[in-house]
Amino acid sequence: MHTRERGAAHINIFFFLVMLVLFLGALGFGYVQLTEKSAVDERITAILSRNQQLEHELLVYDHYVQDLAGVAGAAGTYDGRDGYNYELEDGVDKKTLEGVTIPGQLKSLLTDFAGQMQIPQSTATPVQSLLTQVKQTVDARDKRVTDLQGQNTTLGAQVNSMREAVSQANQQKTTEVTQLNEEKNDLRQNITTVTERLEIQIADLRAEVQRKNQELDSEREDRSTSEAAASKEKNTLRAQIGVLASKMALGSPPEQPDGSVLSASQVTRRAWVDLGRKDMLPRGTVFQITSPDGAKIKAYGRVDKLEYDRAELEVFNLADRFDPIVKGDQVRNDLYDRTLRRNIYLLGRFSYPLTKPAVKLKLQELGNTVVDAVSPGVDLVIVGSDSLNEEGDGFTPVTEMQEYKDALSLNIEITTLVKLRDFLRGASE
User: Predicted confidence band at 251 (pLDDT cuts at 50, 70, 90)?
Assistant: First the structure.
């Protein structure tokens, strides 16, 4: 009995301890849960407070954005900054701003405004810098306007002075114009009178011109007929002239001299030839003195004295003093002929000492005639050097001159001044 009571008491205490531990565990768990709930409640309270604060800030921000859009005047939809990731959790909508100022558009607007105000675009942003530049620009322009107004006042005074001077000048000019108008009216009346007279004279002249034109037409018809006949006659004469020119060709060969030496003196340098006045030999004629066969030029001789049938020559330019002039030597001059007298034309440029006047005089002394133009009656054309052209800066070849071409077409004998130089020495000495 006694033992059973101790055992029963032991079981109840153990159970009590277990229950106590469970109670204490439940109490600790409840405390922990209560503590965590309190912390959660505090966090929820803080979150609600922060959420209310954020809603207030968001409301202020929205009002700021709306007011800024109203001031900027450029409203649109703003999706965020370029290049920034705005991804949100599933089920949460991405927020965009409606009816707000787009920063890029505002910056472009400010840049355009800076350009219109002629302000460097680098100062377009921030707005404070732009406004500073605008103020400076406006102040400078205001100063410029003030300066221009001062200049305008000065110019106005000058203009008034000039207007007064112009007014005085206009009065003077008005008086002069009135006087000139009176003179003009008088002159116009005189011109009218003269014009009427001239019209009458012009009418008479027109009638005269018409009559002359009729006469000219008639003369043209007659001339056309005459030219046709003359052309036919010219062709016939040209053929005849060709035949005569071939018979009268200049240039005697050495075997046909003009004369021979009758006697000569080496001491006095004189020689007599068998030509004289009967042969129409002029004083001063220069001959080549050649050997009897004409192959060698021994000297030159100039006619000094004339007799009826002989002439005395002054000998010069002896080629060889050991080969003097002797009886039987021949004399010749291509420009001289006992019976033939020529019509000669000088073509080209003739230089000193054989100038054209000097050559003309010598040719006339030899019995020839020097003419002024190439025509069918010309027997010989002597050609000099090329002539100076009309511009005076060069020379025209003789062969291109019209007179040379006419001489060829008429079959006229042509020779050069160089070939005849020896026979013309008497003209320059």
Answer: very low
Mean pLDDT of 246-274: 77
Place of tokens 């029963």: 8
CA-to-CA distance for 182 and 180, rounded, in angstroms? 5
Residue 283 forms beta bridges with which residues? none
Closest among 338, 328, 313, 332 to 256, alpha carbons compared: 332
Q: Is 173 helix (H, G, I), strand (E, B) or coil?
A: helix
**Tokens found for residue 362:** 């010598």
Of 250 and 58, the structure prediction assigns the larger pLDDT to 58
* Interval 101-144: pLDDT, tens: 777 777 777 777 777 777 776 665 677 676 777 777 778 878 88
| Selection from 268, 267, 275, 264 nearest residue 298 by Cα | 264
Asked whether 388 and 349 are in contact (CB, 8 A), the reply is yes
Question: How confident is the model at residue 252, as a pLDDT?
Answer: 47
Report how far residue 251's alpha carbon sits from residue 415's, in angstroms, rounded to the nearest whole number: 9
Taking the C-alpha atoms of residue 84 and residue 195, their distance in angstroms, rounded to an integer, is 98
Residue matched to tokens 């305008």: 152
SS3 350: coil
- Residue 364, Cα to own-chain centre: how many angstroms? 57
Q: Any alpha helices (H) in 290-395, and if so which ranges?
A: 356-365
Provide the pLDDT for residue 264: 95
361 phi, psi to nearest 5 deg? -65, -45
Q: With CA atoms as reference, report the closest residue to 301 among 319, 290, 320, 288.
A: 288
| 225: amino acid identity, one letter | T
> Which residues make Cβ contacts (< 8 Å) with residue 66, sequence separation at least 6?
99, 100
The number of C-alpha atoms within 13 Å of 185 and in the hemisphere containing its C-beta is 5
pTM beyond 0.85, yes or no: no
Structure tokens at 383: 């050609």
Inter-residue contact 273 to 285 (CB < 8 Å): no
In sequence order, what are the beta bridge partners of 331?
A: 259, 289
Provide the pLDDT for residue 428.
43
Strand pairing report for 413-416 and 380-383: parallel
Q: How far apart, in whole angstroms, are the C-alpha atoms of residue 262 and residue 240?
A: 41
| Segment holding 305, helix H or strand E | strand 297-306
Region 50-58: mean pLDDT is 78
Kindly state the helix (H) or strand (E) to which residue 395 belongs, with its residue range.
strand 395-396
Please check the confidence at residue 239 and state whether its pLDDT lies above 80: no
* pLDDT in the model for residue 222: 84
Number of C-beta neighbours around residue 424 at 10 A: 24
Choose among 367, 381, 149: nearest CA to 249: 381
